[in-house]
Amino acid sequence: MKRDMNCPPFQKTEEKIKEAAKKVFLEKGFDGATSRDIAEAAGINIALTNYYFRSKEKLFMNIFEDMIQLFFEGSVQILNKPISLRDKIVELIEHDFELMKKNPNLVIFIMNEVHRNPERLVKAIGYIKQLHHTLFKVQVQEAIDKGEIRPVNSLNLMTMIVASVQFLFVSKPMHMQIWQMSEAEFDQFTINQKRLIIDMVTSYLFETEKA
Amino acid sequence: MKRDMNCPPFQKTEEKIKEAAKKVFLEKGFDGATSRDIAEAAGINIALTNYYFRSKEKLFMNIFEDMIQLFFEGSVQILNKPISLRDKIVELIEHDFELMKKNPNLVIFIMNEVHRNPERLVKAIGYIKQLHHTLFKVQVQEAIDKGEIRPVNSLNLMTMIVASVQFLFVSKPMHMQIWQMSEAEFDQFTINQKRLIIDMVTSYLFETEKA
DNA sequence: AATCATTTTAAATATTTGTTTAAAAAAACT
DNA sequence: AGTTTTTTTAAACAAATATTTAAAATGATT
Question: For A63-73, how does the pLDDT look when each residue is reduced to its tens digit (9 = 90+)?
Answer without folding.
Answer: 999 999 999 99
